[in-house]
User: Which sequence fits this backbone?
């Protein structure tokens, strides 16, 4: 997640430069054919281009709204996970007298958070974090889940036997929550907690299950492919046809000028078409990079920072003093 004042124009141009190169080529070809080779019939009625541009604007706007909502949903889910986690830490601290048992429940929860964030960072075929324009931007920051081995991180919180057990299961996060539930049932049967306390703890675990399911739903359900391909096709068609629709208009500008530019005004079509088309392609690229809120791009939900903040808060709550360092932004990027 970018937490600076804004992206620099230079950075944004660098991020979108490949599409700018393509647009320059696409907009130069019709001018050469029309002006130098003399193919004057190479014109598309402006009404056609205008209608296509209007439809494209609606499609692009619809997609960006939906993808922004997906990122908003991701923030909401992880806000709930943070809130439930703090509640879990307080309940465990206040309901149990055995400090080792409290530590077991709390550290197993840290393991669950670790499983969830590593699961969210796994790549999917439809994601774009490793697309060339996003991958090269990653030189400004690092993703912790790609820097540190999963098993090493897990062994900070749970014993090797427990890690071995959950590693052989399909859903490691679910199994950790099941172990939490089993541990609570055992202490309840020993009458170490009352019914109300047991029910409250189980409700919190149910909350974790719900939020895990929401995370997995956002991760494993791509933006509908039919809308994605329509958006791409419309933007490509508009950018391709735009210069052909503007050829007559820029050619007519020669009637109102004198001097050096007389007869050459049509060449101004290239920069203006590039600017207009770049606006559409940039919106498409921004929407595409906002579709998947957990993959690790510069605009994603900072799940690594959230998990570290949860761990620090709960360990402080338990009276621990040797705490991990907070996850700091790197070049205004928080992951």
Assistant:
């Amino acid at each position: 997640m970018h937490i600076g004042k804004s992206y620099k124009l230079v950075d944004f141009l660098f991020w979108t430069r490949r599409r700018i190169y393509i647009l320059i080529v696409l907009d130069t070809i019709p001018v050469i054919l029309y002006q130098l080779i003399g193919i004057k019939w190479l014109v598309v009625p402006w009404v056609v281009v205008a209608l296509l541009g209007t439809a494209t604007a609606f499609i692009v706007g619809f997609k960006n709204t939906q993808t922004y909502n997906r990122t908003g949903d991701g923030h909401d889910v992880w806000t709930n996970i943070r809130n439930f986690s703090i509640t879990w830490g307080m309940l465990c601290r206040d309901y149990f007298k055995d400090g080792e048992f409290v530590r077991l429940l709390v550290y197993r929860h840290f393991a669950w958070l670790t499983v969830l964030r590593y699961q969210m960072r796994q790549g999917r075929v439809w994601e774009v974090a490793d697309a060339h324009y996003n991958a090269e931007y990653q030189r400004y920051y690092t993703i912790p889940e790609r820097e540190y081995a999963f098993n090493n991180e897990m062994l900070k919180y749970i014993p090797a036997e427990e890690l071995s057990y959950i590693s052989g299961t399909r859903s490691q996060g679910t199994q950790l929550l099941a172990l939490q539930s089993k541990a609570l049932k055992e202490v309840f049967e020993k009458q170490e907690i009352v019914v109300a306390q047991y029910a409250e703890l189980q409700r919190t675990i149910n909350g974790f299950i719900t939020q895990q399911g929401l995370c997995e739903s956002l991760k494993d359900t791509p933006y509908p492919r039919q809308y994605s391909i329509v958006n791409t096709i419309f933007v490509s068609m508009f950018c391709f046809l735009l210069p052909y629709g503007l050829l007559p208009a820029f050619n007519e500008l020669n009637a109102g000028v004198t001097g050096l530019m007389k007869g050459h005004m049509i060449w101004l079509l290239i920069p203006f078409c590039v600017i207009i088309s770049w606006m559409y392609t940039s919106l498409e690229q921004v929407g595409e990079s906002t579709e998947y809120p957990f993959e690790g791009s510069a605009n994603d939900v900072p799940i690594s920072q959230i998990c570290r903040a949860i761990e620090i808060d709960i360990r402080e709550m338990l009276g621990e003093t040797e705490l991990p360092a907070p996850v700091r932004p790197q070049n205004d990027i928080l992951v």
